Amino acid sequence: MKKIPNTIIKKKYQKLIIGLLIVLVYYWAISGTGTSPTSFAQGIPHMADFIRRMFPPDFSNIGTFLLKGLETLQMAILGTTIGAIIALPLSFLAARNIMPNKFVYHTIRTFFDICRGINEIVWGLIFVSMVGLGPFPGVLALSAHVAGALGRYFSESIETVDPKIIKAILSTGANKIQVVIKGIIPQVKPAFINYILYYLENNFRAATVLGLVGAGGIGMELLTSMRLFKNQEVLTILMIMVGMVILIDRISATIRKRVVGIKTIE
Questions:
Q1: Phi-psi region of 217 (alpha: psi -120 to 50; beta: other; left: phi over 0)
Q2: pLDDT in tens, 78-106
Q3: Range with the lowest mean pLDDT among 151-155, 165-169, 212-216, 235-239?
Q4: Closest CA to 79 of 9, 16, 142
Q5: Does the predicted TM-score (pTM) go above 0.85?
Q6: What domains are defined for the chain?
């Protein structure tokens, strides 16, 4: 009878332990959050009743809702743009292959962690207390969060560039700025554009939630309608929000196709 190698036995025990840990983590998460399929099933009739009371949609204030939707889009555009402008130069200082100074590298990475670690709603509360109610604190909240998120993604994209191309450009006597312009940006440009367009769409959804804390936009109209139990207006607002998200997605897809050069596989 062949003896089973110790390494195989160790791997089997490791897999068993990992499996048990995964089960324990999910059990801990489910029990801690009170997640229950039974409670979900029992709540379906209440949800069905809520949806039933939303029909037919009330279009009497659609002009106001559309204007607030455009205001939310303005917040998303400005928040994404300002965040990207902040993140772009700093991302080069947070890329390990570009920045040899560990102090600068870790300082900028920590700054990105702080910005994205704080939720947009919390940023919204902070800036509402700073500049008052309205869309402007929403713009600032989105800018702060996006600066951290895009900064991380940008820096990680820079770290994946092909070092051979960088060395080839350096061999021609190019300085660091020329290396960035000629060697790095062309490689990371598609990823940068994808991230920016993704966060534009994400920020529109985030901006609607910011309205709940007084940061302007269609979110404030949604909150008001829900508080007054105007369910038919709630449906109208949700239709506008979904429609604008679909429109942003289609425009983003067109921009990506033209800039990145996406081609259909035949």
A1: left
A2: 999 999 999 999 999 998 888 888 899 99
A3: 212-216
A4: 142
A5: no
A6: 70-217 (1.10.3720.10)
